[in-house]
Amino acid sequence: MDSSSKNLECVKMIQQQLVLLLHARKCQYRQPNNRVVRCSIPYCELMVSVLEHMGTCSEGSECAVPHCHSWRLILHHWATCLRSNCVICTPLNPENLCLLAKLFLDHKSLYYDTEPFLFYVFTEYDSYGCHIVGYFSKEKKSAQDDNVVCILVLPPYQRKGYGSLMIQFGYELSKMEGKIGTPEKPLSDLGLLSYRSYWNQTILEILVDLLEKESDDNPQISVMDINTRTWIKKEDVLATLQLLNVIQYYKSQL
C-alpha cells in the first residue's frame, strides 16, 4: 500500500471515530429515570464511558485509559479547525447540507451557525456504501414547536416516498418530545404539496377507521381528537379538513 492510500485510510478512520464521538457526546441512552437503554450504535457505550472519563482526566498524553488522549485530540481538532478545505472536517460540516439545499430550494436561507439545529440525513445503502437521498433539519429548541425547518429530497430520489418518510419521522420526533408538531412556515410550493399529501393520508386513515369501527350511521370525531392522535397541529388539521370538505358546523361552530 503506497503512502497516499495509507493517508486516505487514516483520514477515513479519523472521520469514523469523529462521527461516533459526536454521536456519543449527545447520545441519550441513559434516561432521566436512570433506566439504561442500550444504544444500538457500535462502540457508543464505550465512547460514552471514555468521554465521561475525559471530563475529569488531567493526565494528557500520559493517561493509561485507552483512546483518552487520541480522542481528545480528534475532538479538539473538530472544535478549533477553521480550514475550509480540511480533509477531516469539511465532509462532516452540516453547513455543506445547507449549501446543497440552496442548489434546489430557491427560498432556502443560509445559516452559517448550524449549532442550533439538528440534521437528519437519509441514505440508501448498496455494495458501494451509503448514498445521501435527502435530509431534514429542525431546531433543538423551537418556540413554535416546529418539527422541521428545512426538508430536501434530491431529484433522483423524488417520488419514491422519502419525503413522506421524513415528514413522518419529524412527527415521531414530536411524539417523543411530547409536543404537537408543525413544519416551519411558510412552506415552499413543493413542501406544501408534500405536507398536504401526508396530512390528507394520515387524517383520512383515521376517518376511514372511524367509519369501519363505529356502528352509528353518523360517527363523529373532533378536531382535538385528530390532533392528539396524529400529533399534527390543530391549524394544520383544520386546513386539511377544509380541503377535504368534511367539516361540519353546528350553531356556527365546528
UniProtKB/TrEMBL annotation:
Assigned keywords, A-Z = Acetylation, Acyltransferase, Metal-binding, Nucleus, Transcription, Transcription regulation, Transferase, Zinc, Zinc-finger
Q: Which residues form the active site?
A: 184 (proton donor/acceptor)
For this UniProt entry, the molecular function terms from Gene Ontology, in alphabetical order, are:
histone H4K16 acetyltransferase activity; zinc ion binding
Q: Which SUPFAM superfamilies match?
A: Acyl-CoA N-acyltransferases (Nat), TAZ domain
Q: Which parts of the sequence belong to the TAZ-type domain? A: 7-92
Top-rank EC class of the record's enzyme: transferase
Q: What is its EC number?
A: 2.3.1.48
Domain MYST-type HAT: residue ranges? 1-254
PROSITE patterns associated with the record: MYST_HAT, ZF_TAZ
Q: Which GO terms describe its biological process?
A: double-strand break repair via homologous recombination; regulation of DNA-templated transcription
Mark the TAZ-type zinc finger spans by residue number.
7-92
Q: GO CC terms for this protein?
A: NuA4 histone acetyltransferase complex; nucleus
Q: Where in or outside the cell is it found?
A: Nucleus
Q: Which family does it belong to?
A: Belongs to the MYST (SAS/MOZ) family.
Q: What is this protein called?
A: histone acetyltransferase
Please tell me the species this chain comes from.
Trichuris muris (Mouse whipworm)
